[in-house]
Amino acid sequence: MFFSSLVPLVLAAVTVANPVKRQLAQVITNCANDNDAALTFDDGPWQYQTDIVNTLNDAGAKGTFFLNGNNYGCIYDQDLVDGLKYAYSQGHQLASHTWSHSDLTTLTWDQIHDEMWRVEEALQKIVGATPAFMRPPYGNYNDQVLSASYVRGQSVVYWSFDSGDSTGTPPDESNGMYDGLVGEHPGGIIALNHETYDTTAYQVLPHAIQDLQSAGYNLVTVAECMGMEPYQNFQDPGERDDSWTC
């Protein structure tokens, strides 16, 4: 009797210790193609996006924008909508950085999906494309985040180089960091920047472009440097209505 009474407890412990393993999304930390560099910009859309796009365009470069829905500004604000449409039309990649820039590792399964879905919905309405890439805020992820990303058809993007702009690194120091990076000349680069700082847009980005191109790097999107498609599917963009709000 004593042994049989323990069996359910033992089985319950086994079940907890060995949960069903969900499929996890791919985590990208660097470009797969040698001599490709992907300049990425987090936390937008914001007021410097169009100027960043024009600087990239003038250099024959492409960038990747990891976008929030409601962080520095509301993604549905008309000036930000115009900037996103312009960036998309110029061949730059639009990707997800989640809706409110929350640490996904602190959220429930349903909350994680909501953070992801609301950005996807916004980009479907604004440009008619569903992103295939997501960068978790703060670079924080766990198996639940990776599983949710897999379910949503998105690869998770980290980085191999951080310009330091979000932690207050002065632009001259960021430029020096780019100098050191090209001196090391790694095979591929995914560079983390933020489109929410004027110093990044007007001082660091031009220097980074010159550094990287002079060192022989092709400045491409994350999707291009991985040989992957940037979007899962396409549809007609939506018409502005009462749902275009944060």
Automatic annotation (TrEMBL):
<feature type="domain" description="NodB homology">
    <location>
        <begin position="35"/>
        <end position="220"/>
    </location>
</feature>
<dbReference type="GO" id="GO:0016810">
    <property type="term" value="F:hydrolase activity, acting on carbon-nitrogen (but not peptide) bonds"/>
</dbReference>
<keyword id="KW-0119">Carbohydrate metabolism</keyword>
<keyword id="KW-0961">Cell wall biogenesis/degradation</keyword>
<dbReference type="InterPro" id="IPR011330">
    <property type="entry name" value="Glyco_hydro/deAcase_b/a-brl"/>
</dbReference>
<feature type="signal peptide">
    <location>
        <begin position="1"/>
        <end position="17"/>
    </location>
</feature>
<dbReference type="InterPro" id="IPR002509">
    <property type="entry name" value="NODB_dom"/>
</dbReference>
<dbReference type="GO" id="GO:0005975">
    <property type="term" value="P:carbohydrate metabolic process"/>
</dbReference>
<dbReference type="GO" id="GO:0098552">
    <property type="term" value="C:side of membrane"/>
</dbReference>
<dbReference type="GO" id="GO:0071555">
    <property type="term" value="P:cell wall organization"/>
</dbReference>
<protein>
    <submittedName>
        <fullName>Carbohydrate esterase family 4 protein</fullName>
    </submittedName>
</protein>
<dbReference type="Pfam" id="PF01522">
    <property type="entry name" value="Polysacc_deac_1"/>
</dbReference>
<keyword id="KW-0336">GPI-anchor</keyword>
<keyword id="KW-0325">Glycoprotein</keyword>
<keyword id="KW-0378">Hydrolase</keyword>
<keyword id="KW-1003">Cell membrane</keyword>
<keyword id="KW-0449">Lipoprotein</keyword>
<dbReference type="GO" id="GO:0005886">
    <property type="term" value="C:plasma membrane"/>
</dbReference>
<keyword id="KW-0479">Metal-binding</keyword>
<keyword id="KW-0472">Membrane</keyword>
<keyword id="KW-0732">Signal</keyword>
<dbReference type="GO" id="GO:0046872">
    <property type="term" value="F:metal ion binding"/>
</dbReference>
